[in-house]
Amino acid sequence: MIKRSVSQIAAMCGAKLKGGHPEQILCGVTTDSRSSGGGDLFVPLVGERFDGHDFAEQAAASGAKAMLWQKDKEIPSTLTDVSFLLVRDTLVALQRLASTYRSELMVRVVGITGSNGKTTTKDMAAALLSTQYRVLKTEGNLNNHIGLPLTLLKMDEETEVAVIEMGMSGFGEIEELTKIAQPDAAIITNVGDAHLLQLGSRAGIAKAKLEIVSGLGENGILLYNGDEPLLAEGLQSLEIPDTTTLRTFGLQLENEWSANNISLEPFGSKFIALYKEVPSGLGEVHIPTPGRHNISNALAAIAVARYFGVGPSNIARGFSELKLTGMRIEPSRAFNQAIILNDAYNANPTATRAAIDLVAGLEGFGRRWIVLGDMLELGPEEEQLHRGIGEYITKDKAEAVLTFGPLSHHTADGARLSFGKAGHEELIRHFDDKDSLAEWLKERLQPEDIVLVKGSRGMRMEQVVQALEKG
Questions:
Q1: What does the pLDDT look like over 429-465, one tens digit per residue?
Q2: I need a surface site. Which of 200, 337, 341, 455 has the fewest CB within 10 A?
Q3: Closest among 133, 29, 16, 35 to 83, alpha carbons compared
Q4: Domain residues of the chain, as ranges?
Q5: Which residues does residue 368 pair with via DSSP β-bridges, in sequence order?
Q6: Residue 105: CB partners within 8 Å, gap ≥ 6?
Q7: What does pTM read for this prediction?
Q8: For residues 367 and 402, what is the distance between their CA atoms, to the nearest angstrom?
Q9: d(CA 75, CA 89)
């Protein structure tokens, strides 16, 4: 974590210092008044319904020795031993502090964005790079305008590589984040359907993701999904410096990084990693997560690891030690040993189709159950998009479809249309209650079956997973 004196931090974020002890060494930064450790810098943020300045005394009691402080806020008279760093806007000052700190360190940064697969790719890239470097990565989903600066400020002087996830919901957000993080390498995992409500079209989503290029450092590299033509089209409209390297990855063999001999299983995948500059390939790769889309994520991680000089043996070791963030095609066992694929962290049409394809490609099971909750933030076409997912589930991809949520009854209707009158009607059902869905499924689930559970974060479909595991 950052370790600087009060006066140094004031200079780094353009603050005017008032009171306290200018030479006091601060260790770390927090926006939570309850978690201030001994010597933290407390950053009170201001939102529509809260003002962190109201919790200054609590932060001081928890150990904060200095605070960023907006000039228009009154300083509590009781905090006579605290340094106040006066700024116009505490969030902007936090971001400036993080950017300045990143520039001071001898660290290389990997920035990752995309509609789907950001967190999985982050976990994979960090695991591979950690075999040779001291690596810090974004924790959980702290990938926004607050979480990203806080992540950078967790680096210490010994950090050699930071793997930073960048999320967004509208135009300009990735540009803001990439200029703070100043990545040496950038990855765009794909272009999906998330945030159609805000961005209007998949072309708009591609444009927003490509904003990551604006923060690339000199001699940086952009690794992007070559299976997505919108990214290649979007790059043509950008002024890319001659010093920037462009490389593609994906499942199509035309990409610089690709894969063949793909084998999918419920608890993992294996493939041959191919690189056009190495005709013999890099050998067989095993990853502890299923799905062709996760092979694409793995190729991005391999590409950035090789760019940083990680050898094939360490790449294999990194994947063998990989620990993925939960609820992203996370396999587990039901009460009766049936296999559950928990993909309940989030959902949009692109990611949902990929998960369905995964289940369709698995063989040797009894019934394949698809359990889907609503996909949120899809805009005016949400009903059509849900119905389209149902129509996408053909009889050769799954034997049963269960849905939950006010929008997902359109998914069930689409599945009925796709299945037709072939004796499957009783296995395509919509539920208004997750408990009822889980109980109905438990009565019919067999040990040889497999169940995919997916939905947007707000639907909390992991509750179905938990009910199936408990029995």
A1: 999 999 999 999 999 999 999 999 999 999 999 999 9
A2: 337
A3: 16
A4: 3-87, 105-320, 330-470
A5: 450
A6: 155, 157, 159
A7: 0.87
A8: 13
A9: 15
